[in-house]
Amino acid sequence: MSATTRRPTNVSLPEALVAEAKALDVNLSRACEEGLAAAVRTERQRRWKAENRAAMESWADPLDRYGLPLARHRAF
What we know:
By secondary structure, this protein is mainly α. The chain is built from four helices and no strands. It has a domain at 15-67.
């Protein structure tokens, strides 16, 4: 998860949370990086889904109209 170029950044966090993290030997930089990466990944997915919603919905149109191909051969 490490990038080749790192940028120092100030982050404001609740004191109690930082104290507990330090007591548990949690690496704050790594934890912040992992959390930020997860947030970025989630937002990218949300935006991609929003941008491509019409295409994804149109894929279901033939199934809605004609049903599953070979459905008559299904055993369940």
